[in-house]
Amino acid sequence: MTLLLFIHLLAIGIWTGCVATEVVCELGQKTLSFKDRTIASLHWNIDKFVELPAIGFAFITGVLMLQHAPNDPVLTLKIIAGITAVCLNLLASFFIYKRYQCFIKNDEAGYVKYDILHDRVGVGCVLSITTAIVLGGYYLVS
Ligand code: HEM
Questions:
Q1: What is the distance between the alpha carbons of residues 115 and 127, in angstroms, rounded to a whole number?
Q2: pLDDT tens track for 49-108
Q3: pLDDT reported for residue 26
Q4: Relative to the CA of 133, which ligand 1 atom is closest?
Q5: Span from the CA of 81 to the centroid of ligand 1 (angstroms)
Q6: CA–CA separation, 9 and 3 (whole Å)
Q7: Ligand 1 centre from 141 Cα, in Å?
Q8: Which helix (H) or strand (E) holds 135?
Q9: Is 127's pLDDT higher than 90?
Q10: Residue with CA nearest ligand 1 atom 5
Q11: Per the structure, how many domains does the chain have?
Q12: Is the overall model pTM greater than 0.70, yes or no?
């Protein structure tokens, strides 16, 4: 295993761990009233300090490995799913940032709008990350 691939897989592990933890935290606070929700700042801090840097490392190492990557259909599909996951997660993080801004301004309507937008994009994130993991794992062991 090359150092680039090791960093790629480690970064994806950290990224996926953040997403799984955030899903649990988000679902755990859905029934709380607007004022009692700590998820807005918690989720934005996780994104800012852990998830977005991990996505950055996963993407940069992926791009650096592209030049030597074999022309394989499974790997190509994996890379498409991976790039989709990066794009959707960046959009999801933008909605998380906007939701946090609404929370600190006490703008409940804005908070609800970005909360719904985040949940919808979040489904796409989970599906594309899962697809990339399954295809990447299959490519790795086959
Ligand atoms: C959630 C996102 C991603 C997951 C789960 C993922 C998973 C993996 C896995 C498991 C491998 C090891 C396969 C192997 O080399 O045997 C791998 C390798 C690789 N990935 Fe990703 N990846 C993701 C995102 C990306 C992105 C965004 C890119 C490109 C921009 C990318 C490009 C590559 C390349 C070029 C390799 C090396 C293939 C080779 O030479 O063998 N990956 N990835």
A1: 19
A2: 999 999 999 999 999 999 999 999 999 999 999 999 999 999 999 999 999 999 999 999
A3: 95
A4: 5
A5: 10
A6: 10
A7: 13
A8: helix 108-141
A9: yes
A10: 133
A11: 1
A12: yes
pLDDT at 37: 86
Amino acid at 88: L
Ranges of H-type helices in 29-105: 39-46, 52-66, 73-104
CA gap 11, 5 in Å, rounded? 10
* Residue bearing the CA closest to ligand 1, atom 42: 62
Going from the Cα of 29 to the center of ligand 1, the distance in angstroms, rounded, reads 33
Please give all residues whose beta carbon lies within 6 A of any atom in ligand 1, as ranges: 5, 8, 12, 58-59, 62-63, 65-66, 68-69, 75, 78-79, 82-83, 85-86, 129, 132-133, 136-137, 139-140
Encode pLDDT of 6-40 as tens digits: 999 999 999 999 999 999 999 998 888 888 889 99
Domain assignment of residue 115, given as a range? 3-27+36-141
The whole-angstrom separation of Cα 16 and Cα 35 is 29
